[in-house]
Amino acid sequence: MRLTPTQVDEFAERGLLFIPKLFKAKEMRILKEGFDAAIEQHAEGVQSGVQIAMAPHAKNTIFDLLARHPRLVEPAMQLLGDRVYVHRSKLHAKLPLTREFLPWHQDYKRWHLSDGMPAPRAISAALFLVDVTEFNGPIVFIPGSHREGMLLRSPAGNVDHALEYRHYDIAEETLSRLVQTYGLEAPKGPAGSAVLFDINVAHASGANFTADPRDIFLIAYNSVCNHLLPVASPREDDQASRCFDPIECSADDIFLKSRRFRWTG
Known about the structure:
Helices cover 26% and strands 20% of the residues.
């Protein structure tokens, strides 16, 4: 799947691109079944009102195929101008009726400082497993903020802390200026929609006021030429992969042809 020149320009300017209904309803039924199984068996507790299962692409046939799906991989390669590998993936189930929020942050800051990622030559994708609305905690972006590079954090912050404690990952005065300059945007849409976003774009998410979880698959593709450098205390592979082999894409119609998938972890 190739993005249009207009889409490429939009991503460069805004640091995000919303693609509604990237996957069909039949495909989403298979993906949602795999999501529910993975969360049930491998969720790692709750952070900021979110149940998380790390690296599902390494444990589940469905998410291995999804991580290699051309509708996600090819736009990432097109935007980065290089082959890519999976830096990390995770499942997010934002719990029903939670008041917690995910603080403002940039993905690249943690990956650069903790994991040794040389440059922000990676792209994240968020695939909606359920309909995302204004009521169930959509991801909120500051479009265009990626153009300001890696933002300084408040002296009170610590990027090495778990995310729920990183409330000062970006200084409040910086956030105020960014919001006034660029505004806010929270992409919303039906299950199967996706958001591609630059790893330097500032983002957060709020409360889920509904009685159902908000389920999202998150994956980050890194350029093979931007692979992680050695660091003193590398994180586990499910947090920051050090397998830099370029992805071989699965078939575009893999979820339409195959009749059955099983959890393999």
